[in-house]
Amino acid sequence: MSSINLIILGYLQNKEKSAYEMVKEFDSWNLSNWLKISDPSIYKNIIKLCDNGYLNSRTVKEGEMPEKTLYSMNEKGNTYFNELMEESSKNIGKVYFEFNAFFNNIEHLSEEKRKEYLINFKNKIEERRLTVESRYNHEKHNEIIGSGFFLLELYNEFYNVLEKWSEKVIDHYN
């Protein structure tokens, strides 16, 4: 299942956009913070989706600007989008944390280094929690409700739990 394809197809449901515009919009969503995705992979997948007949494309030239290709959904793309959505609803995937290897090896450190690194870890969590919490509170006051807000709420709750958990770990090793 391709999360990247799902994001692209969902985004193009009701609008026609260039690959550049999509990448810029996805960057503004901070998409790489909640999906394993990169700008080159977005471009690559747009081209593949078009080559496989899931997207229509047309080239336009506006004034003195260089030509650009605009992409839009077609019926085959909509069918594929629905297949990906169904597959996603039945397979939530596994959750891996980048820090699992760090914690797996924490006991191989001297007590001094272990304390130092655990404090580094806790500080980084607090930094992320504050960033997410700030954005969450901003969006909450804007009364924006929808799937994006619910994902933001999930991350807000996750970082609160992770911060409490890191305090327990530090207490354990003190």
TrEMBL record:
<dbReference type="InterPro" id="IPR036390">
    <property type="entry name" value="WH_DNA-bd_sf"/>
</dbReference>
<dbReference type="InterPro" id="IPR036388">
    <property type="entry name" value="WH-like_DNA-bd_sf"/>
</dbReference>
<dbReference type="Pfam" id="PF03551">
    <property type="entry name" value="PadR"/>
</dbReference>
<dbReference type="InterPro" id="IPR005149">
    <property type="entry name" value="Tscrpt_reg_PadR_N"/>
</dbReference>
<feature type="domain" description="Transcription regulator PadR N-terminal">
    <location>
        <begin position="8"/>
        <end position="82"/>
    </location>
</feature>
<dbReference type="InterPro" id="IPR052509">
    <property type="entry name" value="Metal_resp_DNA-bind_regulator"/>
</dbReference>
<protein>
    <submittedName>
        <fullName>Putative transcriptional regulator</fullName>
    </submittedName>
</protein>
